[in-house]
Design goal:
alpha/beta, seven-stranded parallel sheet, six-stranded parallel sheet, 26 helices, 29 strands
Length: about 750
């Protein structure tokens, strides 16, 4: 099964031996054969490192059949396994012993020098990540960040964390209390600065610290590992697929990686799979977060229709991967009993070989925070996407019957988008052509309005707006600033949208500066008075702003740059600028047309619905904060948005339709209120008339009729009827009612 690796390359040192082969090629089988062989030499102990507890359990069950000295421990938290293995390494001197642990446990043991490396061989199942992202929530971390951690700005916009109070950090590191689990890796990383570097965005940290007791912020801390802590073992074997897509080589610069795949896999391995039995399908042409299950998905029409259609499409057992798979109350009530709901982070598990249909509905986009941070390290969005998001997708899909060599049936893989399908299809040989799954999600259906008269009004409004666009076409693009930021001496600046983007991306504002991308009626405003830049004075807007708010959301729930890009027609130009609040950002979309206040709102709402987020701004007159200091920016090149592409969609028509209904209801409410006010005014006049003597009434009739006619807005018939009902004693006779009719 394998050749003598001593002949192949030297042992130990700073080298890591990589067995790089596709899923199902025999990497784990090779590792077990390796363990069997070395056990006969009675020299070595083995450490098996796996990503998840379930994969550790799988290794334990299989190795226990060939070795009675297998040590595996899991209590549901990070603390107990670490203490258990620390004692095991001190006390267990059994040759051929096998220690099985998670990657997190292994790294904590390495960082605290708790693993004697002599005569130990490591088999790391799946590639390690050269970095981790630790998320903190404010209320629980107050003591740790304010009393235990110091920060130093080591490069522009980035803090490096160090210890302020070793004793406090050691309390977090060594506590057996499960409540400290979330902080244990961070405390360990800061204390072991020779093994880890902890970095954080400066703006995010400052915002987090200022709000830490309010519980309104969350913080992402990037922990980079020093690869030297993996050195010094008798042997270190790394098992995984698609090694060429990982970030390990780029980040672990002090380590030599030796690809020994061909020396260890008996049958010559390939970098592609036999795809003749795998049909790759996709759901959408472009990525849309509206179908991703998150905590904000409740009531999401696209998600609900997608689940319904998948239920109808497949009648066999289906494995579905969803971000929040543990939230079974709503998810499992949506899918029928044929579906198995699983996490997208499942790696290496072999229990789903009987499944012949897998549907991947988890996010394949990295977060904005990760993209912005790693850009400074020379790591692109595409690299992160391939090495993390799409790699997880590949690993998850390979859990089904596609890895079973005895299977002769077609296996179906369903992925979110066409680009995802193309990527994974390239890993297959002789696979059938990619297909778009024909599911009937009626997001683009022609709307049948209940009221045809209102439907005609919708069309009239759209046509009127299009005529307005042509009329405004020669008008200049105008931007209003609370302060002069373009050195023109004016706060109202006529510049192109491209020039605005260039300044907005690069400029560092001084003070509390705001911008509105619109032209207002100068005769009414007379001067640049932001209190008068209102809807009534608004003439047109050039471009669209989105204010994306990710506060309180988990990483896989956050709206990303890519979500916005994919919500718009392909090739649309966009500019992004991060705010001072962690995870939030502004988007400017240059437009070909100049929009009215009403059209601006409609187009913006359609875009927001496609993104699947809850923005903080939906008004054409909203002031957008020009954040102080450079906080990160990005321009997605392309052409100006042709607004008519969005304005003519069913979604836009439906929004306009609902607005008309709301306005008519508001008019009805106003009319009813007016009628109520009129009645109260008329009743008051009659009560006053009834309180005077009959003699005075004869002279007061003229005043009563005047009040009812002009204040209560009554007709002659209404006056006659109202008086006979409310002043029956005086107007009981026909002669007096006749007198009422004769009063002009």
């Amino acid at each position: 099964m394998f050749k003598n690796q001593r002949v192949l390359i030297p042992l130990g040192g700073d080298s890591i031996k990589v067995i790089n082969a596709v899923c199902g090629a025999g990497k784990s089988f090779t590792a077990k054969s390796m363990i069997k062989r070395f056990q006969t030499e009675n020299k070595y102990q083995f450490i098996i490192v796996a990503k998840t507890v379930s994969l550790c359990q799988q290794w334990h069950d299989e190795l226990s059949l060939i070795n009675k000295n297998v040590v595996f421990y899991h209590s549901g938290n990070t603390v107990s396994p670490v203490f258990t293995f620390q004692n095991e390494f001190k006390n267990n001197t059994t040759i051929n012993a096998i220690f099985i642990m998670t990657e997190a446990c292994f790294e904590l043991l390495l960082a605290t020098n708790s693993i004697p490396k002599k005569n130990k061989k490591v088999i790391h199942d799946e590639f390690m990540k050269p970095y981790d992202i630790i998320s903190l929530d404010c209320p629980q971390s107050h003591e740790l960040i304010t009393q235990g951690i110091s920060v130093t700005e080591y490069e522009e916009g980035t803090y490096r964390l160090s210890s302020k109070n070793n004793s406090l950090l050691e309390k977090y590191q060594n506590s057996n209390d499960a409540a400290y689990n979330v902080f244990k890796p961070l405390a360990t990383a800061i204390l072991q600065s020779h093994n880890f570097k902890c970095d954080v965005n400066k703006k995010d940290w400052d915002a987090y610290v200022s709000n830490v007791q309010k519980g309104k912020e969350k913080l992402e801390i990037f922990v980079f590992k020093n690869d030297t802590m993996y050195h010094g073992f008798n042997d270190f074997f790394l098992l995984g697929a698609l090694f060429e897509t990982t970030l390990i080589k780029q980040v672990f610069s002090d380590t030599t990686f030796h690809d020994i795949t061909y020396g260890f896999i008996f049958q010559k391995p390939t970098k592609t799979h036999d795809g003749s039995k795998i049909q790759v399908c996709y759901l959408f042409n472009n990525y849309s977060r509206t179908f991703i299950e998150t905590k904000t998905t409740s009531g999401n029409r696209v998600w609900d229709e997608l689940v319904k259609e998948i239920n109808i499409t497949f009648d066999n057992k289906v494995l579905v991967y969803i971000n929040n798979h543990k939230r079974n109350e709503r998810i499992n009530s949506g899918f029928n009993e044929n579906f198995i709901i699983e996490s997208p982070n499942v790696i290496g598990i072999n229990s789903y070989k009987y499944i012949k249909t897998s549907v991947y509905l988890a996010s394949t986009n990295p977060t904005n925070i990760a993209v912005s941070y790693f850009a400074k390290k020379g790591i692109t969005r595409e690299q992160i996407e391939k090495s993390v998001s799409r790699y997880n997708m590949y690993q998850a899909l390979m859990r089904d019957a596609s890895r079973d060599q005895q299977n002769q049936d077609i296996v179906v893989w369903v992925v979110p988008t066409e680009s995802d399908a193309i990527w994974i299809h390239n890993l297959l040989v002789d696979a059938p052509p990619i297909e778009k799954l024909e599911i009937n999600i009626k997001t683009d259906r022609r709307i049948k309005f209940d009221d045809p008269e209102i439907a005609r009004k919708v069309t009239d409004i759209q046509n009127k707006e299009r005529k307005r666009w042509k009329k405004l076409e020669p008008k200049p693009d105008t931007f209003m600033f609370t302060e002069n930021v373009f050195n023109t001496g004016k706060q109202e600046v006529n510049i192109s949208q491209d020039d605005f983007i260039a300044g907005w991306i690069e400029h560092t504002a001084q003070g509390e500066t705001h911008v509105i991308n619109a032209q207002f009626n100068k005769q009414r405003t007379k001067k640049i008075d932001f209190d008068k830049l209102t809807r009534e004075n608004h003439q047109y807007s050039n471009g669209l702003f989105l204010d994306i708010d990710n506060d309180g959301l988990k990483d896989d729930e956050m709206t990303t740059y890519q979500d916005v890009i994919n919500a718009l027609p392909e090739g649309t130009k966009l500019a992004f600028r991060n705010t001072m609040t962690c995870g939030n950002f502004h988007v400017f979309i240059p437009t070909k047309q100049k929009l009215s206040y009403e059209a601006y709102k409609v187009v913006q709402r359609v875009i927001i619905s496609k993104i699947g987020c809850d923005p903080a701004t939906q008004k054409a007159t909203q002031k957008i904060h020009f954040d102080k200091g450079q906080v990160g920016s990005y321009v997605h090149e392309g052409s100006y948005l042709d607004v008519d592409i969005i304005y003519r969609t069913n979604e836009a028509r439906e929004i306009i339709y609902k607005q008309i209904i709301q306005e008519e209801k508001r008019d009805d409410d106003v009319e009813n209120m007016a009628k109520k006010t009129n009645y109260e005014s008329a009743k008051k006049s009659c009560d006053k008339f009834n309180s005077i003597s009959d003699k005075e009434k004869h002279n007061a009739i003229y005043g009563l009729v005047k009040d009812l006619r002009h204040k209560a807005h009554m007709t002659e018939n209404e006056i006659e009827m109202f008086c006979s009902q409310n002043c029956p004693y005086f107007f009981g006779s026909s002669e007096r009612l006749k007198k009422l009719r004769n009063i002009k």
